[in-house]
Design a protein that fits this description.
Blueprint lengths: L21 H4 L7 H6 L20 H55 L5 H19 L1 H5 L4 H4 L1
């Protein structure tokens, strides 16, 4: 029998298969019991490290981003407010225009279809005249003198 050597016996390295793994990259294992005693012992307790917060993701950075986003949104609204107001005004005008157009056009179509001495035609005419007169005599007409000429 050959005398025991003090050198640790190393296992052969794994064959290269083209794939890399963590085991293949690790240092060769020793089978010598004395070698294990001389290797430093590592603790499985978690090491104390800095918090796992990547740069730019601290609470202060996130709060700052929200504040910047709010300021940017406010600036965008201020820049676009005249356009928004103009769009709302135009939409309101178009709604009122087509509402009154539809009402008047329909009434005129009905009036044109009726004979001149019809009770329906006379009722529309008299009702429209009475409505104008009633409005002119009301408090609303006194509060808005600019309408006085329009009602005559």
């Amino acid at each position: 029998m050959p005398p025991e050597s003090k050198q640790p016996i190393q296992e052969p390295a794994p064959k290269a298969t083209g794939k890399t793994s963590a085991k293949a990259d690790a240092a060769p294992k020793t089978t010598d019991p004395k070698a294990e005693e001389t290797q430093p012992q590592t603790s499985h307790a978690p090491a104390e490290t800095a918090p796992a917060v990547s740069p730019g993701h601290t609470p202060e950075d996130i709060i700052g981003a929200f504040k910047k986003g709010g300021a940017d949104a406010t600036a965008a609204v201020e820049r676009n407010l005249p356009v928004i107001k103009k769009s709302i005004s135009k939409a309101t005008y178009m709604f009122c225009y087509y509402l009154s157009f539809g009402a008047v056009y329909t009434a005129e179509m009905v009036m044109a279809a009726l004979p001149d001495d019809s009770a329906i035609r006379n009722g529309f005419k008299d009702g429209a005249s009475a409505g104008k007169k009633s409005f002119a005599d009301s408090k609303a007409a006194r509060d808005y003198p600019a309408l006085e000429g329009a009602l005559a």
